[in-house]
Amino acid sequence: MLVVERTLDRETRDLFQMQLVATDCGVDPLSVSADLIVTVTDVNDNCPAFSSDSPHSVTIPGDSRKNTVVTQVRATDPDLGPNGDIVYSLSPKVSEQVKTLFSLNSLTGSISLTRDLESDNSEELVLKVLASGHHCPPADTQVTISVLPKANQELTIKIGFIAEHQNQTMVLQENQHPTALAVLELEGDSIFKDLFLAIEGEVPFTLSPQNGKYLLSTSKPLDYEMDREHHISVVARVRSAEGSVIVPSRRVVTVLVADINDNAPYFVQPHYELQVEENNQPGMSLLQISASDLDSGENGMVTYRLENYNPTMFSIDSVTGQLSLLVPLDREQQNVHRLTVFARDSGSPPLESMATVSIHVRDQNDNPPVFLTPHFIFFIPENVPTLSQVGKVEVKDPDKGENGTTELYVVNSSAPFVVDNTQGMLRTTRNLDRETEDRYELYLLASDHGQTVALTSTARVTIFVEDINDNQPKVILPGSNSSCLTVSPGTLAGATVGKIYAIDEDSGLNSEITYSATAPELLQNRSPFQIDSRSGNITLSQQLLHTDLGMHHLFIVVRDGGKPVPLYTTVWMNLLVNDSTEPCHLDRVPTWTGTLNLVQTPSKEPICDVETARFSKVILLIGLGMMLVSTCLFVATVICCLKQRSRSLKMNKRAYTEANEIPLRLKDKYYSD
Distance between CA 260 and CA 293 in Å, rounded? Predict the structure, then answer.
């Protein structure tokens, strides 16, 4: 950013040349430079002022002729162009006599006679001249014109031209160094002595005496833009004690200044900025660019051209400077267009200047929101807290401001989800249960904030609810802990005598069920039953013996495959080894008094009924006592069976009945009082 540190004054300095250097911060810094030229443009900050020798005092002969240039006043305004234009006028306070006798050129400041003088007497006339500029109070000066009595003898001023001339008028190109124009000589007899020639007024010319003659030359380069013609009033003067007095002899020399191309065109303003709404109509006119040239003729004829631009987008009329737009603009492709306009005159060689145009493209709501993908897929575990994050939904709108600000909405509002528009996050509105619904399909609506019409788009969202191990296995078979199955003593080893069937509403590993059985016989490796851990089938592990007659209680633990801790439930499998065909039924539910190596506590109540813990200690003591008695009876029974093996079938049947009654009586050891 280039900053102006103090006030600039074009009249003091109108051009600054500098060099910009850009250096990086590397260990070995690299740099690049560019020349920068700042041209100070003019503003109307100065008013006209007359030269320091004002007021003027002029003496003229009493026989001066009409249109004779008496003198020329000069005011200056250091501003440029129209800001420096000066208009001369007579003050309203000037007498009517003066107004009828003299005329003032409003552009050059020349004061001329409007009629011939025929004055035999001396008189003094006072003129007050005003110099006016744009938006400035007029400056004033006073010109005193002394009229001498007309002389009886006449002197003439003869001129010999050196410079190019036509019809007694010389033509000189501007900006030339001091140049000799003509040789002037005073001819005729006069009663006056010590005559000499002099120039009236402030003009850029000098008279140099040379061998009784006078060389008329320019004192400085002429400027066509300041004065296009000069009227040099040469008069004869006579030296006196009081100074010098004009004698009745005068010659006006006219010099026309020829223009050269010494002024480049200048823009009314060096930089233009405008705003255009995108999607405009082709051929739209943008603005009129104007440049002026102080030169004349072809030197002042200006043409325009563009540089560093896309010719298919912009055009400028070379004569009028009308800048037009050829195609619709798209802010999303380019929001600012910077053009360089050159104004060139037709001089030889031509001169040109530059102005810049910045075109800012205003946004229209012409782009709907765009989702990152038309189909979002998210996964979320079940049972997460309300307002948990499901996933981020990304949507973009290339428009600007409110036109590019978007909001998201869930279209099917019955789904338990809502969009957090501050983060673009999809969140839950309630607890999710995979076992109730494991997948949600919904649509999101994205809408921008367009003032006239809001643009929208939709995206599909699929949400998969991932399972967590939140359900215990449910035992279907047996139907209750008091269920009982009868097993024939003649059942062969390996036969399936029962089945445990359970289900788990979870999925995957969380629903994979394994079965394990625990019973006093199993602990001592004496149980004839075993359970398949995968299928839940209960089979005979060996051929039934008469000692196996009676009730067998298997405490079944059903586990799922949840990680890191599985869930489980328990059930009693009651098997009665007996030839009876009558339905088996338990009066009481067995109670397990052992210890289970289960590290996980079910989150729900067990499916099967169990006794309360307040009787567990009593049951344990009773169970231990009954187990001791049972062991003794078992040993006695085995001895009796061996002794009577050789008896007849009738005796065997009787023995079988007796042996069967003993376990039935012993079954009470599995019940609590």
Answer: 12
